[in-house]
Amino acid sequence: MRVVYRGLAAAVVVVAVAAALTVVLPSGPDEVAAGPVTAPPAAPSSSGPAPTPTLEPTPEPSPGSKLAPGYTAMEALHADPRVPKLTSGVKGMALSSPGKQVVEDKRTGLAVPRLGRPWKRYGAAPFTSKQVLPRPRGTSLRGTFVSCPLPIMEQESPRDTALLAARWTLNLHPKGSKISWIASQPVKRGWMLVYRVKYGKKASRAAVVVVDGGMSKPGLAFVTVPDSQRKQWRDIGRVVSGVRVLG
User: Does pLDDT of 15 surpass 90?
Assistant: First the structure.
């Protein structure tokens, strides 16, 4: 009888363990959850309205920036506070006789003055000719005289073309530079402007000469000399007097 009872007890234990396992163990992998189930985001309906894109506001063109669509070059010039209006009160200046020493710039069709010491010729790129003064101690600014094909859009008036060229040269001066006019007058087949460029407590004197040298674009001669080298300001007159067409 003891053997029978022991057999019945063992059978009860086996049945109990099997029932426990049936409760604890999941019946399949789909019933295992590590945490709360989050519904996936609903797919956008193909029949619903398309989402409206968010557009950034179009900024107004700032003076001195690249030309904005719908603005002419002259409108951008007149809106630029760095460049004052060129009035009839800005007179011409006496031009000296051009020197005999020249640099032939065949890309522009111009002959430009070869300035004497302390000026020296220098690697021209990205221009087509370049002359510089020695670099002063303590500053990267030094006198520079370059020529190149006109880097801006030519206008119907040589005077307007020269104005745009002068504005363009602010890219070659320190940030925050502003122009004040010194002289303006026609030259043979073009126009010249002499001006002061102020930046902070410092300033330079500069000039542009735009001349039609018979090439696809007019030629530009540009000179700038900082006040730390003011002794060479006289060479600006030599530049504007000496630019001429080759041949």
Answer: no
